[in-house]
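Re: How this chain folds, sequence and tokenised backbone to follow

Filed under: protein folding, tokenised backbone structure, sequence and structure records.

Contents: The amino acid chain and a row of whole-number tokens, matched residue for residue.

Body of memo: The sequence and its backbone structure tokens, given next.
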Amino acid sequence: MMSTGITPEQWRTYEEQGYLKLGKVLTGMELVALSQRIDHIMLGKAELDYERLMMQREAGEGYEQSGQTNGFKGSTLNYRKIENLEFDPLFLSYMQKPVFREICDKVYGTDIRVSCFRAMFLNKPARNGSVLPFHQDRWTDLDRDPLVTVWTALDPATIENGCVKIFPKTQGHLMNPSNPSGFLTRDQVERLHEVMEPINLELEAGEAVLLHNWTVHGSEGNSSAKSRRAFSVCYMDGETVSAAGKKFSVVFGSGSLQPELIV
């Protein structure tokens, strides 16, 4: 059944645990459309401005892992990350679903604009995929911390293909505030393992999970014959500014992007 709202009990669970499985947020047709769209983008078949996308190719096929820079890097399904997907009308339409508006209203308030820090495709190709060490999603070059991320499975996410792993109830404080990207030290991870085991967030295709940005999470590589494609969106206060003075795309509220106007 499609998720159409979040109950008070679910909110309490989220606030206590630092995460909440949202269930199916994509219909079968929407899942097919987004999956086909990202494949077309990776293969260079999409009609869009590729210079607006930050694309990183995974190592393999005779290539080293590329940097995270703007522009197309060849026709392949072996991309690791593709960012700035709010500029694609299909992905933007998904980002603006009412359930995500509800989440942002709850977290940030109903009277402010909401922007996105990253609207990002994440990929662990079959028999490949980078290990992502445990971290908290925060960035010291922003003038305030984003608080919520929605992670949506486009393929089934399993232990074998590198599903997200989290340490629940770790959202209450920053563990390594001096790290510019929130990565934990080895000692910090070992101390967490002493008191708990991480939870594997296995999801069916079309399901999503809501994560507090400070919930410690990471993932292994993909040891299976099936890819692990996903779409991740970090929603934040629309007034957030980077140290360089950059503002970010507004997805809810005054001045928000409109899918029909994007080419």
The longest strand covers residues 114-124.
